[in-house]
C-alpha cells in the first residue's frame, strides 16, 4: 500500500530540512527522485538517495524566475522522464513590520511560494493528465507544502501568510478539477519545526518559550516528522484523499 516502486518524484526544496527528509522518505519507499536546485553543487541529498539504490538527478532552476521555472518541466520531459509525484516544498520567508514591508521582497516571496507552485502544478498536471494509470492506480500525485499561516495571519510576515493561504486554496482548486481524472492534489501544513527558516524564532527565547508552551506534543517538530505524512499522500494508502491540507503540528491547531 505504501510502495512507490517504479515511480518518479519531482521535488523542489530538497536540499535541506523538511524537503530533504521528505525526498528521502519517497526514495526509501522505492521512488526515483528528480531534485530541482538553484545550486547544483549541493549533492548531499542526491548522494543519500543513491545510497538507497534509487536513481537521483538534479535539474538546475531559479524558482524566483518565471522564465527559469517555465523551462523546467519541458526540459525534464525532453529527457524522457515520467513524473508520478510532484512535491513542491521550496519556500522563502522574510520578516518586516507590514507598514515597512518592501515591495521587492513581497514579489519574491509570492513568486517562489505561490506562482512557482502554480506553474509547476500546471505543467506537471498537464503531463500527468496524458499518462496511463501507474502502479498506484493514479495518473499522479501532487503534494504542496502549505503552513500554519494558511490558516493564521502570523506577525510581520504578510507576504508569507498570503502566499501560504494561496497554496491551500490552489490545492483545493486543482483537486476539484483533477481528482476525478486520476490526479490527487493535497498539501501538508507544517507547524513549528526546528529548521533554518525558524532560526529567528528559536533565537528569541521569550517567543520560543511561548510557542513551545502552546504545542500539546511538548516539542518543536523535526524534519523526520514529515516522512510518514508525505509517504501517505504520495502512495495508494491515500487513494480517496484529495483537496486535503494535512496539518502536522504536534496539536497546535487543536488549541
TrEMBL record:
<dbReference type="InterPro" id="IPR036291">
    <property type="entry name" value="NAD(P)-bd_dom_sf"/>
</dbReference>
<dbReference type="InterPro" id="IPR020904">
    <property type="entry name" value="Sc_DH/Rdtase_CS"/>
</dbReference>
<keyword id="KW-0521">NADP</keyword>
<protein>
    <recommendedName>
        <fullName>Ketoreductase domain-containing protein</fullName>
    </recommendedName>
</protein>
<feature type="domain" description="Ketoreductase">
    <location>
        <begin position="7"/>
        <end position="191"/>
    </location>
</feature>
<dbReference type="GO" id="GO:0016616">
    <property type="term" value="F:oxidoreductase activity, acting on the CH-OH group of donors, NAD or NADP as acceptor"/>
</dbReference>
<comment type="similarity">
    <text>Belongs to the short-chain dehydrogenases/reductases (SDR) family.</text>
</comment>
<dbReference type="InterPro" id="IPR057326">
    <property type="entry name" value="KR_dom"/>
</dbReference>
<keyword id="KW-0560">Oxidoreductase</keyword>
<dbReference type="Pfam" id="PF13561">
    <property type="entry name" value="adh_short_C2"/>
</dbReference>
<dbReference type="InterPro" id="IPR002347">
    <property type="entry name" value="SDR_fam"/>
</dbReference>
